[in-house]
Inverse folding.
């Protein structure tokens, strides 16, 4: 289910109600938890763009970018409060590409790993399809087979190998690339 939200950004980004969690735009008050989670080397090394160690102010800048009217990526906080959990468990994002395509990305704080949170967040975004995509792409580092399984269970098909630069690792890392055609 998608509901309107009055947010800091004039550009509309929906709140998405999943079966067990809420996906909402990031808020300034998420900065402390966001900084705590992404300062963990395991989270940073699982992404392309999070540096490690985390420079001061990075979380605040990330939130400001996520709220910008000119953004090309919608970032949702994975909010566990509907189930009595933390207000920020991780994030899921859709980066707009061209021709009704987006790339999905996600991470969950290590304290919440293996609880189905990333799967539920990805499913909720795909079910709502807020960018009205015809195709959604994803990539995972090849040393993260759990994320690869998550994508295949979410209906993504493997389309090939590539590599992507990881800021935290300071090197190119082999990836698996996935595609999902949307109904």
């Amino acid at each position: 289910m998608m509901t309107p939200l009055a947010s800091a950004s004039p550009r509309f980004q929906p709140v998405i109600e999943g079966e067990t969690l809420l996906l909402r735009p990031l808020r300034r008050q998420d900065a402390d938890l966001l900084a705590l989670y992404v300062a963990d080397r395991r989270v940073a090394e699982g992404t392309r763009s999070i540096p490690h160690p985390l420079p001061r102010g990075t979380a605040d800048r990330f939130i400001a970018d996520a709220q910008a009217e000119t953004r090309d990526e919608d970032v949702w906080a994975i909010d566990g409060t509907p189930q009595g959990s933390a207000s920020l468990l991780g994030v899921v994002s859709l980066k707009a590409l061209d021709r009704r395509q987006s790339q999905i990305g996600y991470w969950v704080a290590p304290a919440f790993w293996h609880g189905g949170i990333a799967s539920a967040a990805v499913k909720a975004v795909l079910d709502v399809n807020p960018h009205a995509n015809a195709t959604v792409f994803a990539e995972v580092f090849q040393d993260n087979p759990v994320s690869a399984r998550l994508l295949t269970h979410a209906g993504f098909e493997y389309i090939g190998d590539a590599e992507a630069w990881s800021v935290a690792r300071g090197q190119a890392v082999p990836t698996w690339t996935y595609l999902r055609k949307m109904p």
Notes: Confidence is low (pLDDT under 50) at residues 2-10. The chain has one domain: 2-132. The chain has five helices and nine strands.
